[in-house]
Design goal:
The structure holds two protein chains of two kinds. By secondary structure, chain A is mainly β. Chain A has no helices and eleven strands. The N and C termini of chain B lie far apart (36 Å). Chain B contains no helices and eleven strands. Chain B is mainly beta. In chain B, the strands form two sheets. In chain B, strands 2, 4, 5, 6, 9, 10 and 11 form a seven-stranded mixed β-sheet that branches. A four-stranded antiparallel β-sheet of chain B has the order 1-3-8-7, with no helix packed on it. Classes of the chains: A mainly beta, B mainly beta. At the A-B interface, strand 5 and strand 10 of A face strand 4 and strand 5 of B.
């Protein structure tokens, strides 16, 4: 079983829409969680860390559900510039990070 | 402040050839990482270096070796390239440990024929 699983999409949404992605992780000992963004043929960049209490950064909200072992990312008021692949990342402790395969988002004018 | 730099950007090798991918960071980070990214597989950790002078295997280390030359530089060597090593290779650095953001280089696109 993969450490981290994501729906690959693609998600095609109109500008201004709200879209949500989920990610599940297999190891209950996982300790830290992140969402990264990757533009086509570019390197991944941190979008936000995910805290136990949930956290928000502008139009982006991340939630963690330890009991069900999933994390989510909500994007409100989607912009064209949000089009990218969103990577879910999980750490079990130390320096080993596990990446999901990514969810592709295209925001349509 | 260049962040994380990688060379080369592109490379084509024949099966059995060797090469070294170079990575350097100017953020004074303790930890450095090598990942490969393949379609449908996500990024997978090859090796990492938690601090200068240490290296450890990640999820997919077979066929690779690494050297943490100093705090700034972390190289990845393919001794005898195989077509299965065709991939995009990313180097990353961070302050270290599970809580800190990783900063990635622009990647090296390697094709082995």
């Amino acid at each position: 079983r993969k450490e981290v699983e994501q729906d690959p999409g693609p998600f095609n949404v109109p500008e201004g829409a709200t879209v949500a992605f989920n990610c599940t992780y297999s190891n209950s000992a996982s300790q830290s969680f992140f969402w990264y963004r990757q533009d086509c043929r570019k390197e991944p960049k941190l979008l936000m860390s995910v805290y136990s209490s949930g956290n928000e950064d502008g139009r982006f909200t991340a939630q963690l559900n330890r009991a069900s072992q999933y994390i989510s990312l909500l994007i409100r008021d989607s912009k064209l510039s949000d089009s990218a692949t969103y990577l879910c990342v999980v750490n079990r402790g130390g320096n080993q990070f596990y990446f999901g395969t990514g969810t592709s988002l295209t925001v349509i004018p | 402040n260049a962040g994380v730099t990688q060379t080369p950007k592109f490379q084509v090798l024949k099966t059995g050839q060797s090469m070294t991918l170079q990575c350097a960071q100017d953020m004074n980070h303790n930890s450095m990482y090598w990942y490969r990214q393949d379609p449908g597989m996500g990024l997978r950790l090859i090796y990492y270096s938690a601090s200068e002078g240490t290296t450890d295997k990640g999820e997919v280390p077979n066929g690779y070796n690494v050297s943490r030359l100093n705090k700034r530089e972390f190289s990845l060597r393919l001794e005898s390239a195989a077509p299965s090593q065709t991939s995009v290779y990313f180097c990353a650095s961070s302050e270290g440990g599970q809580l800190y953001e990783q900063y990635f280089g622009p990647g090296t696109r390697l094709t082995v024929t």
